[in-house]
Amino acid sequence: MSLLLFLILVLGGGLLIGYATLPGEWYASLAKPPFNPPNWVFAPAWTLLYVLIAVAGWRTWERERAGAAMKIWALQLVLNFAWSPTFFGAKLVGPALVVILALLASIALFIATVWNRDRVSGWLFCALCPMGGLRHLAQRVAAPVELSALLQCSKSICVAFRRLR
Prior knowledge:
The protein is mainly α. Helices cover 79% and strands 0% of the residues. It has helices at 3-20, 24-29, 39-63, 68-89, 93-114, 119-126, 128-137, 144-163.
């Protein structure tokens, strides 16, 4: 499978889900923290992140199509794509938090799985750690303890993999 097909799959899926689950009035009515970026920032930021996901997926596919890393990559993509319909579509805040936590775990697991064989893919996914947590944090639906835990998790994952170098 070519890089172009991975880009079409990941970007196309992300765009379709994004358009199908636009935030709308419900999201606008939520009390957001002061660090919440303006809405126009999310589309370019997630476009870039989806490109990183696609490149890491393609690199993994080229190395081991049926291996554990490819399965974990697919799992994180499913979780990534499930969050918007859960949060914006169904307005299920608790289950959206569960999806984010599972997504962060799958990202960490992917990084750990590929780190010794394909450090580039591992680094590409390091960018997803804070963004996965911030996706939920920006919605201001977690308690302060959960916010701190998500930020610490993201920081710890990236620091741990930096030490493996």
